[in-house]
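Hi Y.,

Following your request, here is the sequence exactly as I used it, all 213 residues.
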Amino acid sequence: MQTGRPAQGPVEEQEPEELPELANLKVRGRSVKTWVIGASAVVLAVSAAFGGLNKAAAETPPLTAGKAVDAGQFAVTVDRVVTVKHLKPLFQPEPGGALIAIVAKVKVTDDLGTRPPSDLFRLIGVPGIKDTEAPMGTTTIDDETMNPVLTPDVEQQVAFVWKLPKLSELPTEVKVSVQGYKHYDESLLDHHEKWLPDALAGAGTIKVKDNTK
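Below is the corresponding structure, written out as tokens. Let me know if you'd prefer a different format.
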């Protein structure tokens, strides 16, 4: 009697299983393509809500001294940019340095009084001052009220002051930008009325008056 394994016939080659395309894969009953499109829509919606798309797409209006600018929550007109040795007793520079100030007419367009926000103005390209740096403070010109609360619909002249380090030469001109704000009846975060930063309302180069001498 012959023992051993039974003879096996030729082995059939199996074709490799075809993998589904990424677009046809499903997660929780929905295709991956649908999830990606949905996530992209959420990102775009959040970006638009906080002004991201507006900032990227909008063209910044030119800014010149004496030109009124609609910044949403504020109507502003830059009068001049000046450098001074000090503004005692309110503001003093570091030893050997100076102060530089944007003097502007500012009016609150809302029905509630408020302080000018720290990002309303920026100085761009000034040695010793970061482009994102907020002013060290503000003061009204007429009565020297420091960091004043502005009354709605009343135009006031306000100085926005930065420190300048000791430089071999003071700037003779600077680029100034004005931040715009957009009103939201309901905030996405806490369901209150809000003014949030929007696209820049204006930007331009303005000559600097040297009052340090």
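The longest helix spans residues 32-49.

Thanks again,
Q.
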